[in-house]
TrEMBL record:
<dbReference type="Pfam" id="PF05222">
    <property type="entry name" value="AlaDh_PNT_N"/>
</dbReference>
<protein>
    <submittedName>
        <fullName>Saccharopine dehydrogenase (NAD+, L-lysine-forming)</fullName>
        <ecNumber>1.5.1.7</ecNumber>
    </submittedName>
</protein>
<comment type="similarity">
    <text>Belongs to the AlaDH/PNT family.</text>
</comment>
<dbReference type="InterPro" id="IPR007886">
    <property type="entry name" value="AlaDH/PNT_N"/>
</dbReference>
<dbReference type="InterPro" id="IPR027281">
    <property type="entry name" value="Lys1"/>
</dbReference>
<feature type="domain" description="Alanine dehydrogenase/pyridine nucleotide transhydrogenase N-terminal">
    <location>
        <begin position="7"/>
        <end position="141"/>
    </location>
</feature>
<dbReference type="InterPro" id="IPR051168">
    <property type="entry name" value="AASS"/>
</dbReference>
<keyword id="KW-0560">Oxidoreductase</keyword>
<dbReference type="GO" id="GO:0004754">
    <property type="term" value="F:saccharopine dehydrogenase (NAD+, L-lysine-forming) activity"/>
</dbReference>
<keyword id="KW-0520">NAD</keyword>
<dbReference type="InterPro" id="IPR036291">
    <property type="entry name" value="NAD(P)-bd_dom_sf"/>
</dbReference>
Amino acid sequence: MTELHLWLRHEARTTERRTPVVPDDARRLLEAGVALTVEDSPQRVFATDAYEAAGARIAPAGSWTSAPRDTVVLGLKELPDAPRELMHRHIFFGHAYKQQPGARDLLRRFAAGGGALLDLEYLVDDHGRRLAAFGYWAGYLGAALAVLHHRGRLAGPLRPSEKAEWDEALRPAPGEEEFTALVVGALGRSGRGARAAFGVAGVEPGCWDLAETRDLDRTALLAHDVLVNCVLATTPVPPFVREEDLDDPGRRLRTLSDVTCDVGSPLNVLPVYDRTTEWTDPVRRLRKEPPFDLIAIDNLPSLLPREASADFSAALTPVLLDFGAAGPWGRCLDRFHAACRELGLTAGESGRV
Ligand SMILES: NC(=O)c1ccc[n+]([C@@H]2O[C@H](COP(=O)([O-])OP(=O)(O)OC[C@H]3O[C@@H](n4cnc5c(N)ncnc54)[C@H](O)[C@@H]3O)[C@@H](O)[C@H]2O)c1
């Protein structure tokens, strides 16, 4: 076991209640010899007491900034704007390698401080498969919102809750009208989650993946009432839905839930909208007659913080127990260095995992 001092930080984003390590897995890490500090965080879905009971050292929110240099800071979403120079190794979703807004600034902060980003999105096994991801619950919620909206039962603003509540809401009421649904990307993590939600809702969706879209039958796709898009596109493919399809007076498709939310990307398979929807206003009407409604929420798993955290933590913990220079963490570090080089940044002294 490597000598790892892990520091679970409070999330700067106020609506983020998830955590990458839940108390039970904190205990596993501690038992394996990892030194674990957990920041107090009022919004985290698991109480700080539970981490303390597991044996973790508790520290104030945001105190990672003065943690010893060798500490590995763990979180999920963006860092606060200060400090400008980042000297630690940070594990989180940096969203910094695809020219996203703020990407250059973040990498520059790491380069200036001599720290490193170990990006969770790039934590992959030897075959390039993601080791820890939130996809399943994203798909479950993307489909759940589509079903509830299509049945006229979705009331915003959305708020985080427990799975039992979502399941209860999803169950069909007696005499409720049937509808047809299609999940594209059905074999992936979010596709499986979407199918599970439809299952609870008593709807048997069509399931398409690569084989079914290779020679895209758009007419067949548009012949469903509800579409849930769960693809992870890696190369450009013909769009699934186009503007002219929305304008077709004979269109059957009414509700689109885009779990992928690749809005603005050249790989976007749904180039019919230009901004995501929000928890406050989850549905946007894109056409009046016949109606066409969009749901495109880019932080779906945050609506189920407990279950999403538990699954993610179960997948991440074994990889944390194997923290070291080889394998997934080494690949993360290589990716960070490559991104810095692409931007002409010198990545300080972060040549270690
Ligand atoms: N909205 C959110 O809150 C949220 C949360 C997590 C993930 N996501 C996004 O959801 C998407 C899917 O993530 P995942 O974890 O399920 O990925 P995944 O790799 O597990 O599954 C993707 C599936 O899409 C299929 N696919 C790829 N191209 C296709 C095509 N042209 N036609 C049909 N199928 C195709 C793949 O074969 C695979 O089965 C990603 O873009 C991810 O970023 C969104």
